[in-house]
Specification:
17 helices, mainly alpha
Length: 406
């Protein structure tokens, strides 16, 4: 039995998730009455995510903010601006696309318990009261706005703390991330239960929703990679951006697509930066940092899935609330965990903006894991290739400003 488990765990997560999906579909179609117990795996998986997500957000953001160093003589200021612009515009694309092509989801329990906000005033009121929530209560009630606020404040104060304190916080962050990896290792079983429950309840029409959602997500990511990022690059470099864009997608994006980890793709990106003749003092910092905070793909995922949940619950989203969501999705994306599917765990943070309960948000995460076979791969490819693209863009822009040959 032990050998079987070891061999199973050696198979890539993508393949294991596919197996879970296929088994769930077959059981729901062939013998639904005899296999009702399968749905418990989906409930347990969602429950585990609910347990770990709040504390993950707290320590990830707190550790990232506390470790930030200022005053280094590099081209990092422009790169950070590019990272911020790219991530924010990705969130904008996700929100606009969701308005143009609205998608709904098949959710089970709790969907009737939501009281949609009546307008921007109520949204801002909820936002402000969530910000000033007691930190313990924020963790207990999964108030992600409050958790994010306290994480940022504590991180800013701890920037002046001793290195040993920062190391301890970082160790806690790494430990929680490791626990998240354990939970995600259970994704094949959880997704089997979620797919089974969705199809047994709603029939094969649930698969159509998954395909529509996946097409919307991937369409947004391709638009960011092939339209938005080239426009940003052109504005800063005044050069045809596509040779550089296509090279970063080819030499960084394809590798990241299969590894599904921005962190694992750091050596590939460092090598590519060296080939491009970029400043080593800059890219040795910007590439590892970008693997943590440059998350355009995550911003798309968070905004699209959040609005899919809002559409499902019949929540009317006005323009000002949409703008807040654009900003919030970009901020949330910058704190996304480095594990596969890490951006999905920050969806409750954005959902809380609309008063969507944690139970429903976790069901949305479950849907995200079902389509993550392609979604997470494309998200990582966009994130990682953008790290090199914006580092090169900043380097070219600096040389152009100084009148140097490019």
């Amino acid at each position: 039995m032990k050998n079987i488990m070891l061999k199973w765990n050696q198979i890539s997560l993508v393949k294991r998730i596919l197996v879970g999906m296929i088994i769930g579909i077959l059981l729901a179609i062939t013998i639904p009455d005899a296999t009702k117990w399968v749905s418990i795996f989906g409930s347990l998986f969602v429950g585990a995510l609910k347990a770990v997500a709040p504390i993950l957000v707290l320590f990830l953001v707190m550790a990232a903010v506390s470790k930030h160093k200022s005053g280094t003589q590099t081209n990092m200021k422009m790169i950070l601006v590019l990272y911020g612009i790219g991530t924010f515009l990705a969130g904008v694309v996700g929100v606009i696309a969701s308005f143009l092509f609205p998608v709904t989801l098949s959710l089970s329990t709790g969907a009737q318990e939501v009281s949609p906000p009546s307008g921007i005033i109520e949204v801002l009121k909820t936002l402000l009261f969530n910000i000033v929530d007691n930190p313990v209560n924020a963790l207990l009630t999964a108030n992600y706005i409050g958790i994010l606020t306290w994480a940022i404040l504590l991180g800013l104060v701890l920037k002046k703390a001793a290195d040993t304190t920062k190391t301890m916080i970082s160790n806690f962050s790494d430990a929680i991330t490791h626990i998240v990896k354990w939970v995600i290792d259970l994704a094949p079983l959880g997704i089997m239960g979620l797919v089974y429950d969705a199809i047994a309840t709603n029939g094969l029409s649930a698969l159509k929703e998954y395909v529509q959602l996946l097409v919307l997500l991937l369409g947004c990511m391709f638009f960011v990679a092939l339209v938005i990022n080239p426009i940003i690059t052109f504005v800063f470099t005044r050069k045809n951006p596509y040779p550089l864009v296509l090279r970063t997608l080819r030499e960084s994006g394809i590798t990241a697509f299969f590894t599904r980890s921005s962190a694992a793709n750091i050596p590939v990106n460092l090598t590519l930066c060296k080939k491009l003749g970029l400043d080593e003092d800059t890219y040795s910092v910007s590439i590892p940092l970008g693997a943590t905070i440059n998350m355009a793909g995550a911003a798309v995922t968070i905004s699209v899935l959040t609005l899919a949940a809002a559409n499902t619950l019949g929540i009317e989203v006005d323009i000002w609330t949409a703008v807040i969501l654009m900003v919030l999705s970009a901020i949330s994306a910058a704190g996304a965990s480095g594990v596969a599917g890490g951006s999905l765990l920050l969806i409750p943070l954005a959902c809380s903006l609309f008063g969507i309960s944690n139970d429903i948000a976790m069901q949305v995460i479950g849907v995200g894991f079902i389509i993550s076979v392609l979604q997470d791969s494309c998200e990582t490819a966009l994130n990682s290739s953008s790290d090199v693209l914006f580092t090169a863009t900043a380097d070219i822009a600096k040389k152009r400003k100084e009148g140097k040959a490019i």
